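Slide 14.
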Amino acid sequence: MNQKACCPWLIAAFMAAACSNATPAASSAEAGAGGSVNAAGASGGPSAQAGQPSSGSGGASTTGGAANVGGAGASALSGAGGTANGAAGSAGASGSAGASGSAGTNGSAGASGNSSACAGLFCEDFEQGMIDPAKWDLKEGAGGTAVVQTTLVAHGKYALQVHGLASTTDDYALIVSKSAPAALNGTHFGRANFYITPKPLTSGHTQMVFAGRNGTGTANGPAPLPKLRYMEVANISGGWQAGFDLLDISPLVEEVVYPAGSPQVPTVAWTCLEWQFTDAPDSVNFWINGKLIGTFDDQHVSYPSGHAPGTPLYNGSSTGLIGGFELFGFGFHDWHPNKPFDLYYDDIVLDTQRVNCLP
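Slide 15: predicted structure.
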């Protein structure tokens, strides 16, 4: 039985009754046999990291010992006549870093002149000091809030902070992409640094990152995207969860995995989360600090209880259930709020190959 179809909206009384009797160890309605981790996982070739030079020229660089300095409108980390990452420059105006500018597609250079070249097709490091309205739709509900701040960051000067409440209904604070590159519509990889406080985590099913598209079915799920078909990486009662939801059909569909033997979600520390979402066939792989944590597919399913490995995920199929990836969201949606928390994000990258973690 689908948790979201019963708990948040009480579509039918018998669903609500079933939800109240679910095993509490996973959440109020998401108990199931743990899925096994696919140790092999799926990975793409590594792409360039932030802090690595790319082609193009910048403005004046420092004469020697310059680190990550670019010029106006830099699309690379090396200025004219100088090299990046601490290599001595052979020319260029001595000691000048040049005006900060954009650094590759959807990337930005820090105000201090330290470039942060985009390591993929779509990047966000929040170094504009705000949620960019040209890039993101801000979705806040039931008391959830999102703000760019300077107190706690992984790199640079700014990071996103989302705040959740122990409200009586599900709360959320999400930034949702407006015009992500079309190349991300198929299989894609993502990376983000995150920090959660306080510990321990106790809420049931708190979405962290998602990707999907609005479906065309007749049903409507919850706000803020009531027809969303999406894959996600989430935490649940302190552990990990991955899978998909189809909100535009009735009853609403949820299929997830609770990776067997996976560690608890790290708290009170900056942590690197990577993920791979694929719609043909439908699957999720995700990594923490470079280590594969879990795989979701028709061989690794924990919900609903009793799902037999190898059974198609939904309606006789295990492929094309999302319909592609057009919307990408970061923040949180807490389906079963328990206590207030703060979640921070920095160094977000999306690409068609694995991005890997920053040092």
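Speaker note: The first helix runs from residue 3 to 6.
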